[in-house]
Write a structure and sequence with these properties.
Blueprint lengths: L5 E5 L17 E3 L6 E2 L7 E4 L7 H15 L3 H11 L3 E3 L3 E6 L1 H16 L6 H16 L21 H18 L4 H6 L1 H10 L22
Antiparallel strand pairs: 1-2, 1-6, 3-4, 4-5
Helix pairs in contact: 1-2, 5-7
Length: 221
């Protein structure tokens, strides 16, 4: 099974607010980077599926209990249904924002490709075929996404300033972790400047008032 990497936050007033404190940053892990399911029991609404594999036991129990109270069912019934269907469902109308990594970005590209190439509007049969492919490859299978190291690795249709900034920060943190920087280099900002010049050589970064004559030992004299 592919390791999923999508999270969402929910809109204010959503029915999950009583338990959101159990999720770091109020981010709920999702199986898919878009609402893949649809069911008549929710009035035909589009549904996101919470990723059971990334839930703690406390989070799973809280979700089962909350949904059980809403449906006037038992937590055991709700949990059993979630396991059989691959996860707890959340109505798309409650989703406010989404974050994802390599797998989510690749699958969004596949969705964009489908929407561009399928007859418009896509037929129910075409959508089901797309969903079946997603399930077979990404949910039941072990499909591996291509690595995303910079914004250049992202399909132009999916690029946003926020994504570009997030990827740049990931590059910076990785370079700083791999670099042999002292505590002073990090605290003074020299490590950050050095990494920025590595990542973005076309722009010359420097510390304000910095010069090559300054010596770290000078501050102790």
């Amino acid at each position: 099974m592919t390791k999923h990497d999508t999270w969402v936050t929910l809109k204010p007033g959503n029915p999950y607010e009583p338990i959101l404190d159990l999720f770091p940053g109020y981010r709920i892990p999702m199986r898919d980077p878009f609402p893949l399911e649809r069911t008549s029991s929710f009035g035909g609404a589009s549904l996101w599926i919470i990723d059971l594999e990334r839930l703690s036991s406390v989070q799973s129990q809280a979700l089962a209990q909350l949904i059980a109270r809403h449906r006037l069912a038992s937590p055991t019934e709700v949990a059993t249904e979630a396991i059989s269907k691959g996860g707890f469902a959340i109505n798309h109308e409650w989703v406010e924002a989404m974050w994802c990594k390599d797998e989510g970005i690749q699958r969004q590209k596949e969705l964009a490709d489908f929407l561009e190439t399928a007859p418009q509007p896509p037929s129910a049969e075409a959508w089901q075929e797309f969903c079946n492919s997603q399930i077979e490859r990404w949910i039941e299978g072990n499909e591996e996404p291509p690595p995303i190291n910079s914004i250049e690795d992202v399909d132009p249709r999916l690029r946003t300033p926020e994504l570009e900034q997030a990827l740049k920060m990931t590059q910076i943190h990785a370079a700083m972790n791999q670099g042999n920087y002292s505590v002073f280099d990090v605290l003074s900002g020299r490590a950050m400047v050095d990494v920025l010049n590595q990542i973005d050589p076309e722009t010359q970064y420097s510390l304000v008032g910095d010069d090559d004559v300054f010596d770290e030992d000078d501050i102790y004299e």
